[in-house]
Design a protein that fits this description.
Layout lengths: L4 H33 L8 H14 L6 H33 L2 H6 L7 H11 L8 H7 L4 E6 L2 E7 L5 H20 L3 H10 L4 H22 L11
Antiparallel strand pairs: 1-2
């Protein structure tokens, strides 16, 4: 479907933010590599690196030469600038979601925040291009590929076709929401617990992301907020 000017603007902002996130990830990996070559290890996580790096530069002693120390200081400033610019985009998305009805409905879904909500509204608007929720999940590449021979369908791996950005964000949201949802006494929680008992966690995350895609379609089509269904007794 043709996009409005507002949707195109939102998509451009998301693409710019995604580029900055990629640059920040590459910079963090390079920082860790430089430190590791000199026997300095930092626990996993961006926030750990950001909190420990200034002290390492200041108190590294003979482990770092003066030139490398200056290089790390420049890279540290670059990392701070990238983080500031990414947060500026996040604040803009939060402000937009606060004033958009579709985004507010999407944020009622566990695992969907302002970032995911604005990305989906920018990409699919009211999901009018999809006849059913499974079509949206297929467009995101979250359903198995099929091979049919002799009239017998055979399911293969997840297709990973379609919009890679939305798929990645939805999987991140599902991974964050899964521990909480699995503890709830809801239909989704009951389904998750049964699936966790027999499948690898990564498989469960993708399955939950596919279910979330169907929920997103229903919320946008029916224009109602998401509500948990009670678990069957």
């Amino acid at each position: 479907a043709l996009k409005s000017e507002e949707q195109l603007d939102l998509q451009s902002l998301h693409r710019a933010r995604d580029r900055l996130v990629g640059e920040r990830t590459a910079l963090i990996n390079q920082l860790r590599a430089i430190l590791l070559e000199r026997g300095i290890t930092i626990p996993q996580g961006r926030q750990k690196l950001e909190s420990m790096l200034p002290q390492l530069i200041e108190n590294s002693g003979d482990l770092l030469s003066d030139r490398i120390r200056r290089l790390l200081e420049e890279m540290w400033q670059e990392l701070r600038d990238l983080t500031r610019r990414i947060r500026s985009f996040d604040d803009e998305f939060t402000a937009f979601a606060r004033n958009d009805a579709s985004c507010q409905r999407l944020e009622s879904i566990p695992g969907i925040g302002s970032l995911n909500a604005t990305a989906f509204v920018a990409a699919i608007d009211k999901a009018q291009a999809f006849a059913r929720g499974r079509d949206l999940a297929a467009w995101l590449g979250l359903v198995p590929r099929q091979m049919t021979t002799g009239g017998k369908p055979r399911l293969l791996g997840i297709s990973k076709r379609g919009n890679a950005y939305l798929r990645r964000m939805l999987i991140h949201g599902a991974r964050a929401a899964m521990p909480h949802l699995a503890r709830t006494q809801t239909a989704t929680g009951s389904w998750l617990r049964r699936l966790i008992a027999r499948a690898h966690p990564n498989v469960v995350v993708v399955a939950l992301a596919a279910k979330m895609a169907r929920i997103i379609w229903a919320v946008l089509q029916k224009r109602v907020a998401f509500e948990h269904a009670a678990a069957a007794l």
